[in-house]
């Protein structure tokens, strides 16, 4: 398996524009997580899905952020409209959460810069 | 509200010496703890974990210690090698009755091992 695949690797956009980040989890994993890495808070959990259903979106900072998982092999994180303070590295991760070992596998991340 | 805290942003040690990275948590429901390692421009990768029923887990040069009464865990690397230089994240999860698989991360500690 190629692991968790995120696209794009880098995104530069102007303030006010819509940004869509994409993630393909590891096949067979039933949990998918979106994290944002910041200096102050480290890896901050934004939202996670179980079997394509959003379970906890309490980490989503504002209504400008939304996430979907239309099927088991694809998820998107959308920011609309984007703001400079959204600049960060966004990670997607997947895991077999129902096992005792809840190791999550991460993608390489998307570095978002909003100017 | 940071449930998992890594109070040392950085640590520098000499090659061959021991590296000790610390992590504190506030949620007594956490029952599984993990350490992740992150190199620049890559996603975090799983390093070692420990269940709350244990107080120590060892894997080669890496040992994780858990002190439940103090809500504290630590990662020991001995001997430290220059290739260990990376950001280390502590993470915790609560299985409970639902086994959510939700991982909460700390802010990270940047380890530099000097040759």
Q: Average pLDDT value of chain B?
A: 92
- β-strand number of chain A: 11
Mean pLDDT of chain A: 92
Count of DSSP H/I helices of chain A: 0
Biggest beta-sheet profile of chain B? 6 strands, mixed
Structural class of chain B: mainly beta
Q: Kindly, what is the distance between the CA atoms of the first and last residues of chain A, rounded to a whole number of angstroms?
A: 36 Å
Query: Which structural class do you get from the secondary structure elements of chain A?
Result: mainly beta
**Shape assignment of chain B:** globular
The first-to-last residue Cα distance of chain B is: 38 Å
Uncertain segments of chain B: none
The beta-strand count of chain B equals 11
Radius of gyration of chain A: 13 Å
C-alpha Rg of chain B (nearest Å): 14 Å
How many H/I helices of chain B? 0
Residue fraction in strands of chain B:
over 45%
Largest interface: A-B, 31 and 27 residues
Q: How much of the sequence of chain A is in beta strands?
A: over 45%
Helix content of chain B: under 10%
Structure commentary:
- The complex is a heterodimer of chains A (about 120) and B (about 120).
- Chain A has about 120 residues and is mainly β.
- In chain A, a hairpin with a 2-residue loop joins strand 7 and strand 8 (about 75-80).
- Chain A is built from no helices and eleven strands.
- The radius of gyration of chain A is 13 Å and the shape is globular.
- In chain A, strands 2, 4, 5, 6, 9, 10 and 11 form a seven-stranded mixed sheet that branches. A four-stranded antiparallel sheet of chain A has the order 1-3-8-7, with no helix packed on it.
- The model of chain A has no long low-confidence stretch (mean pLDDT about 90).
- Chain A has strands at about 5, 10-15, 20-25, 30-40, 40-50, 55, 65-70, 75-80, 90-95, 105, 110-115.
- The N and C termini of chain A lie far apart (about 35 Å).
- Chain B is an all-beta fold and about 120 residues long.
- Chain B has strands at about 5, 10-15, 20-25, 30-40, 45-50, 55-60, 60-65, 70-75, 85-95, 105, 110-115.
- In chain B, about 40% of the residues are buried.
- The model of chain B has no long low-confidence stretch (mean pLDDT about 90).
- At the A-B interface, strand 4, strand 5, strand 9 and strand 10 of A face strand 4, strand 5, strand 9 and strand 10 of B.
